[in-house]
Amino acid sequence: MKKKQILRLLALTVLASFFLAGCVATKNGVPTGEGWVYNLLVKPMGQLITYFAKDQGFGYGIGIILTTLVVRLLIFPLGLYQAWKASEQAVRREHLKAILDPIQERLKTAKDPQEQMMVQRELMAVQKENGVSMLGGAGCLPLLIQMPFFTAIFYAARYTTGISEATFLGINLGKPSLILTAIVGVLYFLQSYLSMQAVDPQQREQMKSMMYMSPILITFFSLTSPAGVTLYWVIGGLIQVLQQLIINFFVRPYHKRKIAEDFAKNPPKARPTNTSTYKKDVTPQAPVNQAILPGTSKKKRNAGKQRSR
C-alpha cells in the first residue's frame, strides 16, 4: 500500500509539473513577465501585496499575509471539497473492510494473469456497487486547479519589488529565516500528523514514512528560500491545519454517521466467489477421430473429395 501511495504522489507531482510548465516563463529563475499564470495571477497578486504594503501602510510582511489569506480563502472551497470526498471514500472503505480485504488478499496471491484479472474485476464491481471510487471521489482536478494559485503566490512573494529590502518583526524578508523555517516545519508536521489520524490504523502504520515527507521537504526548501516565501508557507500551513481540524472533528464524524445509517438500511454484500472460474482448464483434449469404413482408406476417401472439386 505504501508503494502505491508513493507512486501516486510521484505521478501527481510529474503531472502537475507538466501542467505548469511554461505557465510562468523564467530566465535564471526570475520571471520574465510572460506566461498566462504570470499575467493572470502573479502580477495581480504582486500588485495586491504592494497595495497592502504601501498604499495601506501595513508593510510587506502584512501584505504577504493578507494576500495569502485572500488567495487561500478563494481556493479554500476546492481544497475542502477534495478533502470532503476523500474522507467519505475512506469511511466507506472502513465499513467495507471485511469484504474488500479477502478480495485484495486473493489479488495478491493470484497465480497467473487470468486469475488476477478476474479478481480485479470482482474488486472493481464490489467497490462500484458500494459507492467506492477508484480515484478517491474527487479525482485530481481540484488539486490541479489550485496548483496555478500556489505557483503564483510563490512567485509574487519572492519577486515583488520591495519585498527583498523589507523586514517583518525584525526578520529580513529577502534572506532565509531559521525562525520561520522552524515554524513551517512544525505546522506541516502537525498537518501530516492530523491527516494520519483520519486513516485506518493499519494503513497509518504503512504510510508513516509519508507523514515525514512533506515537513522535511518544506523545511529544506525554507532553508534556502527568502523569508518572504517562508512567511507565505507559514500562513498556508496554518490554513491547512485548520482545514484538517475541520475534516477530523466535523466532516469525518458526519460521514461515519451517515454511511453507517446507509449501510444499516442496505447492508453491503460480498459477491459469491467461484474459485473454479479462476482456474484454467488444463485437461488434455483427445483428438477427434473420423470414422473410417472397413475396406476403405483415408487416402481414397480424401481423393474422392478432391476429384469432386
Description:
Belongs to the OXA1/ALB3/YidC family. Type 2 subfamily. It comes from Streptococcus ovuberis. Keywords: Cell membrane, Chaperone, Lipoprotein, Membrane, Palmitate, Protein transport, Signal, Transmembrane, Transmembrane helix, Transport. With 309 residues, the protein is mostly helical. The chain has one domain. Helix content is 69%, strand content 3%. The chain contains eleven helices and four strands. The strands form two sheets. Strands 1-2 form a two-stranded antiparallel ribbon. The chain has a two-stranded antiparallel sheet with strand order 3-4. α2 (36-55) crosses α6 and α3 (60-95) runs parallel beside α10. The longest helix is centred in the last third of the chain and has 39 residues, at 227-265. It is elongated and about 65 Å long.
Key terms:
disordered C terminus, two-stranded antiparallel ribbon, 3% strand, 309 residues
